[in-house]
Automatic annotation (TrEMBL), chain A:
Family annotation (PANTHER family): BRIX DOMAIN CONTAINING PROTEIN (PTHR12728), RIBOSOME PRODUCTION FACTOR 2 HOMOLOG (PTHR12728:SF0)
Keywords attached to this entry: Nucleus
Organism in which the protein naturally occurs: Brachypodium distachyon
UniProt domain Brix: residue ranges: 28-238
Family: Belongs to the RPF2 family.
Main location: nucleus
SMART domains attached to this UniProt entry: Brix
Region (Disordered): 287-309
The protein's name: Ribosome production factor 2 homolog
From TrEMBL, chain B:
Protein name: Ribosome biogenesis regulatory protein
Compositional bias segments (type: Low complexity): 220-231
Region (Disordered): 73-99, 151-172, 211-267, 292-332
Residue ranges with Basic residues bias: 83-92, 314-332
Role of this protein: Involved in ribosomal large subunit assembly.
Length: 309, 332
């Protein structure tokens, strides 16, 4: 026997629908978690990443001993966490003698591992270690710029992969309209060698240049680190093709039209007010005028009485 | 001046790849010279190059036509060049239901119906569906009998039954359609199909539960006591324990009479006696009831007597009252 199960309340239904596949998706959420052992450096790295993505991230603090992202069977709990927290970007930190300060960036498609890349963290400098004018501090939820420097990003396959991964992890929400006042930070990724990428996070300072286009100035705000690429796992070609599918057009919203002159207009239903049936109360202000007048007359007469004396 | 900067921007744009949708700029041709030198030099070179790239993005970004809103100027970004994978699959189209397939094959077109229609039975406008609708069965108080009707069948109940069956059938059809949709992964997102009651054969839920140690012990105890002597004279197996639950739990009432519990036995016996008497006689004697009956009879008799005495001389009403008072006083 099969029973049909639907959410009991409207609120629950809305919550379920938030997790449902959509034609136009909302921004991806990031899940940050770690293995059985993490170093102080890695703890700080994960905390900083969470800080950068605070509005679109979930951070788990418990140890996870059965996560091995690259091994078959080791990704099951990772996929489960992705489903549970509705996150499709994964950052997994682990520390061992063989692979110190190991960071695994991953993405999921339909809550199954899409691709993975493993990097080692070196030369790490945390957000706290930077001193700068706090007025420049990037604001939460602003869309960052990206700068990728170096020929290795084109020639080396693994770095190409890392570039896409970093872009997807830190780009923030996909927007059509960008508020120019929100421009204020940049991720600078430089390929130093075929295996190493230096990543920096800077604030943008918009200076007057005499034209409408401001002059850019960079102030390092941290974190910064070198990422040494180790292993990676690319998606299968068929899966990539499916994941890259784009919708033909967004679904039309009912009763809402867009007009050049009026802008966005909607048609809504307002029930008849039935003015004739309105219940009248004794508390209507208009009816109190008589009393007010009477009071006024009384005062007037009093004054008149006083005056002759 | 402006022309010069614009020219510079275009020249830069040719050097760098600018993806405005992602606010990204790449310089794939640049070779880091300071890679081997000190950290500070490397950092400076990175920042210098990044400033150029940021400027390239800004040039393209601020050149876009801006609309001034309440929170400042905003621009419309072009779609990103560098495409990234989706998070979840595209919503799949729902397969047609059985009825939709049938209607299509027969060329049945859906017509729009009015929401409200004139109801002849109640002479009023009513909705065409739901509670209090047009041609509602509830509005028919009488169903006229026909010659073909079977005797002993309640037409109202029959109608209710038929309705119930129709609803059940529709629910079954709905489930079937949903199952078909689930097969192609196009189940509406808020609906889940969950297995209930009978578990699917071969699954874990279908396997019988492993018997607990306690259950086994109970069974062993019961078997050993299934002799004429209740297992008293049977030989015990090595390691066998006495049955934990021996016999029934019985409760005896106290024999001695008294208050509370002691009184219960008497009540119980009374009950039995009364039921026996009730079988033999038509009505067992209830003393309290008999007394009240006797009193009522007596009262009625007195009232009648008084009425008859007062009815003879109507003019002496006040006197009657006096009499009453006096009689009461005497009674008190």
């Amino acid at each position: 026997m099969v029973a049909i199960r639907v959410p009991r309340s409207m609120r629950a239904k809305r919550e379920v629908l938030k997790h449902a596949p959509k034609l136009v998706e909302n921004g991806k959420k990031m899940l940050i978690l770690h293995g059985t052992k993490t170093s102080a450096v890695l703890n700080s790295v994960l905390a900083d990443i969470f800080h950068l993505k605070r509005d679109h991230a979930v951070k788990y603090t418990k140890k996870n001993d059965n996560i091995r992202p690259f091994e078959s069977g080791g990704e099951t709990s990772l996929e489960f966490f992705s489903l549970k927290s509705d996150c499709s970007l994964l950052v997994y930190g682990s520390h061992s003698k063989k692979k110190p300060n190991n960071l695994v960036f991953g993405r999921t498609y339909d809550h199954h591992i899409y691709d993975l890349i493993e990097v080692g963290v070196e030369n790490y400098k945390s957000i706290e270690s930077y001193a700068y004018d706090k007025k420049l501090a990037p604001k939460l939820g602003t869309k960052p710029f990206f700068a990728f420097i170096g020929e290795h990003f084109e020639s080396v396959e693994k770095l190409k992969h890392l570039k896409e991964m970093l872009l997807d992890h830190f780009k923030g929400e996909v927007v059509e309209n960008l508020n120019l006042a929100g421009v204020g930070r940049i991720f600078v990724c430089t390929a130093i060698s075929p295996t190493t990428v230096c990543m920096m996070h800077c604030a943008l300072r918009l200076k007057r240049s005499g034209t409408s286009i401001p002059r850019m100035e960079l102030v390092e705000v941290g974190p910064s680190m070198d990422l040494v690429v180790k292993r990676n796992q690319s998606p299968a070609e068929s899966l990539r093709k499916e994941a890259m599918n784009t919708p033909g057009h967004a679904k039309k919203v009912k009763n809402v039209t867009k007009d050049v002159l009026d802008g966005k207009t909607g048609r809504i239903y307002i029930p008849d007010q039935e003015v004739a049936k309105l219940a009248l109360t004794n508390d209507i202000k208009g009816l109190k005028r008589e009393r007010r007048d009477a009071k006024k007359n009384k005062e007037h007469s009093k004054k008149q009485k006083v005056n002759p004396e | 001046m402006a022309e010069e900067t614009a020219a510079a921007a275009t020249s830069m744009a040719t050097n760098y790849e600018v993806d405005l949708g992602n606010l990204m700029a790449c310089d794939p041709s640049h070779h880091i010279a300071a890679a081997q030198s000190s950290r500070e030099e490397l950092r400076n070179e990175c920042l210098q190059k990044a400033t150029e790239l940021a400027q390239a993005v800004a040039d393209a970004l601020f050149a876009l036509p801006a609309t001034v809103g309440r929170d400042g100027p905003s621009v419309r970004l072009p779609p990103p060049v560098h495409r990234l994978p989706r998070e979840k699959h595209l919503p799949r189209p729902k397969p047609p239901t059985k009825w939709e397939q049938f209607a299509k094959s027969k060329g049945i077109v859906k017509h729009k119906k009015n929401k409200r229609e004139w109801d002849e039975q109640t002479a009023s406008w009513k909705r065409t569906y739901g509670y209090d609708r047009v041609n509602d069965d509830r509005d028919v108080p009488i169903i006229e009998a026909k010659m073909t009707d079977e005797p002993g069948v309640d037409p109202f109940a029959k109608r209710r039954d038929e309705k119930k069956q129709r609803v059940e059938k529709q629910e079954k059809n709905r489930l079937g359609n949903l199952k078909n949709a689930a097969k192609v992964g196009a189940l509406p997102s808020h609906i889940q199909l969950a297995a209930t009651a009978v578990p699917i054969t071969g699954t874990k839920a279908d396997l019988p539960k492993k018997a607990k140690k306690e259950d086994l012990e109970n069974v062993a105890g019961m078997a050993s006591s299934a002799t004429a002597s209740g297992g008293k004279f049977d030989k015990k197996l090595p390691g066998e324990k006495a049955p934990k639950k021996a016999g029934k739990n019985r409760k005896f009432l106290p024999v001695v009479e008294g208050k509370g519990m002691g009184n219960l036995e008497k009540q119980q016996n009374d009950k039995i006696l009364n039921s026996l008497l009730a079988k033999n006689f038509e009505e067992p004697l209830d003393v309290s009831k008999a007394i009240t009956m006797y009193k009522v009879k007596k009262d009625n008799k007195r009232r009648k007597e008084k009425q008859s005495s007062s009815g003879s001389n109507k003019k002496l009403k006040p006197q009657k009252k006096l009499q009453k008072k006096s009689s009461k006083k005497t009674a008190a």
